Amino acid sequence: MKEFANILKYARPYTKSIIFAFACLILTSMISLALPLIVRNMINAVVVLKNSDLLNSLTRDLVIIILFQAAFAITHNYILGFIGHRVTADFRIELFSHIQSLSLRFFQGRRVGEILSRMSSDITVIQNALVSIPVAVLRQTITLLGALAIIFYLNWKLTGLILLVLPPLMLFARIFGKRLRVLTEKVQDKIAQALVVLEEVASSIKIVKSYTRESYEKKRFENEIESAFEQSIGKVRISSSFGPLILGLTFLVSTILIWYGGQQVMQGTTTPGELAAFFLYALIMAGPI
């Protein structure tokens, strides 16, 4: 946490802009949660009430709200994107100055490729930690909790069915996701090692050619690339089954919900609009999960 706090100091000059961007983000998320309710009323206006004036009014309101949502989304995307790249640029400049101030012993104990990797890929990770991850967490938290509260209000019985299957799905996704992250890190490490070999050969190409070590260096690079390939295949094995399994389970749950919700519509305990809104909220919840 101390290291993260040190990184946050680069974002302090943009505090007001960040607060404004997050306010726009919250408004965007809240509008997204309101849209299915309007769709519910539109469907009920057609199927139940058969009121064309109400349908026209709701359609106009929906278009206006969508335009506002787009404006808020564009605003917070641009502001946070600008701040993320500005902070990254400032951090790279300071890191470069810091590297130049280090002693010769530091450079003797490290490869040039490792230092270059810190300047490129590691700073990208910092940018994600500062901007992308907090934005995603805030948006998904608002979406998940808001949608869950609304669907519970609309139909607590269907919500109960979702809550029964939600924990196993989340556990399944967590296990697969954790394994994928580990394999992704291993692939990145292997590729970084291959880039180190490439940098070493490129920086000392005269020596390599003078001692006819092309075959040896090619073998070194090939070993690193093949190692990265093996890790990538392990990642493919998991990712190739993860998506279809989640999709299959989602369709299975949707089938059960449609059957049960359809029974309620035919019995008159819920309206077609409420059932449609319920499924829209279920789709909205699927993203954060």
Automatic annotation (TrEMBL):
Residues 19-289 form the ABC transmembrane type-1 domain. Gene3D superfamilies: ABC transporter type 1, transmembrane domain. This is ABC transmembrane type-1 domain-containing protein. Keywords: Membrane, Transmembrane, Transmembrane helix. Its main location: membrane. The chain crosses the membrane at residues 20-43, 63-83, 129-152, 158-176, 242-262. InterPro entries: ABC1_TM_dom (IPR011527), ABC1_TM_sf (IPR036640), Type_1_exporter (IPR039421). It comes from marine metagenome.
